[in-house]
Design goal:
heterodimer; A: 313 residues; Rossmann fold; Alpha-Beta Plaits; 2 domains; six-stranded mixed beta sheet; four-stranded antiparallel beta sheet; B: 279 residues; mainly alpha; 10 helices; 0% strand; binds adenosine-5'-triphosphate; binds magnesium ion; ATP hydrolysis activity (chain A); transport (chain A); P-loop_NTPase (chain A); ATP binding (chain A)
Chain lengths: 313, 279
Amino acid sequence: MASVTGDDILLSATGLTKTFGDFRAVDGIDFAVRKGEAFGFLGPNGAGKSSTMRMVGCVSPVSGGELRLFGLDPATDGPAIRARLGVVPQRDTLDEELTVEENLWIYGRYFGLSRREVRSRAAELLDFAQLTDRAGDRVEPLSGGMKRRLTIARSLINSPEILLLDEPTTGLDPQARHVLWDRLFRLKRSGVTLVLTTHYMDEAEQLCDRLVVMDHGKIVAEGSPRQLIEEYSTREVLELRFDAEDHKDFAEQVTGIGKRVEVLPDRLLVYTDDGDEAAAVVHSRGIAPLSSLVRRATLEDVFLHLTGRTLVD
Amino acid sequence: MSATTVPTLSGDRAHHGVRQPLSTSERWGAVFEYLLVVYKRTWRGSIIGRFLSPLFFLLSMGVGLGSLVDDRAGGVDGVPYLQFVVPAIVATQAMWVAMGESTYQVLGYIKWNMGYHAMLATPLGVRDILIGHLLSIVGHLTVATAIFMGVAALFGGFSSWWALLSLPVAVLTGMAFTVPLFAFTARQEGDNGFNILFRWVMTPLMLFSGTFFPITQLPVWMQPVAWATPLWHGVESSRMVATGDVRWGWLALHLLVLVAFVVVGWLLAVRSFSRRLVT
Ligand SMILES: Nc1ncnc2c1ncn2[C@@H]1O[C@H](COP(=O)(O)OP(=O)(O)OP(=O)(O)O)[C@@H](O)[C@H]1O
Ligand SMILES: [Mg+2]
């Protein structure tokens, strides 16, 4: 596994493990995150992403291995580390009975900011999260996207050096996701280190400089989105759908086309560097799919190749 | 507006790098402050409920039943029934306030709105959360008791200014319930346990802890049950200080039992909170 070294490492883990009883939710993973980087954990449900994030957030004790943030050990310096982190948990922990701005004020006080500081800071963050006109409203009736933006605004109240985001956009509609991505880009550009989990490929490709693919508590691959696609996939993918119960029957007909063929229940994926050419070969063999589509390879293909499973059903 | 830039911070604790740690009082105060903001939203509902039920007891038991007892028996041990029962209702009300504050809301912060989890992601720790929340309940107990005592005084429920000491006694009684209840609540998944507690613990306690009649009127085998619960000790202490009939040895013993409930409750609460919240 490519190792990252240097003084500018804010976060590092070696053999990091989390057990619940006999069950190993995180099974000895190694990773390191550099200052200013956007680092992602990509994996399906139950891969151990949240368990990892909670250990990194110093709210869940490490069961094994070593974890360091800012050179400090969460077991002994939890509060000092948390003072420098921003956390967006998988499930919002807002007080929905209180107003938008009250949620920010209260949270700032947990970090020991003065009342005056908290107020001016909240105003700036509401602006950043595009919630200024909802400042005095109760949280409960807000849309999912607004609540998520509020959680992100709240996590920034202490000007964190590392922002941890556990599935920041899950459950949001496409427009709300794009608004959030835009805010996260800005944060990244301003020098905040982002550590995020996702099971969306597009999100990982959009936001992450570097990521690890997790499955069953283990890291199965690591690199930039481009590197991973180059290493574990081809440049393009030809998707073929047939009028059939079982696409296995058609797999043989396309053997030899492209570098590799992946069989899914509802389609065949032909991995090739030139999709159009592959489509032409299919046609010339007299095979007549219902539809054929050429697309760029994505991390989804990487995941499929590494684990034999799709990431999101 | 300037939504395109990421705001930067001013202030000691908002600069990148090592931040100045929070003092103990800042940590407890932050939790307390949150609960104060919550209370600002809900006080109307809670104050009415809190105020009406002891008032009903005061009217029915103290005034209604009291005139009967005073006519037939000349009060209880020479004390008019109203003045016998009011200091006890003060302690009993504290138990109910404790119950109200230590169950649903606490489980909510653990499980439903996850308010405690939000705090734990910051420099605050489990003990800060517990102490901040417990302090806010000291506040609730003080306010509720003071209001009730004021009203009861108007009805002639107290015979001397010594009765003011019933206030701290009632707060201590309330905490002798609250702290162990926190430990209990942190082990609950839903509200089943609370229903059992209300029906099978609190209500019998109110009836058989010497609130409305001395426990010496109970069958002998039931009296030790009263000794084992905080309410009887609270009722006895409150009554002693309010009526001025203080037997110091007994008073010290009663208060000591109440303190013991708080201390043991604290140890249990820290344990069950840690187990529940830090996983
Ligand atoms: N407190 C806990 N007690 C027991 N098992 C747990 C606990 N928390 C998580 N697990 C288990 O650990 C495994 C990993 O869970 P985790 O929440 O880390 O996965 P995840 O990658 O975040 O999944 P998702 O995409 O669904 O959020 C799961 O099988 C889960 O059931
Ligand atoms: Mg998760």
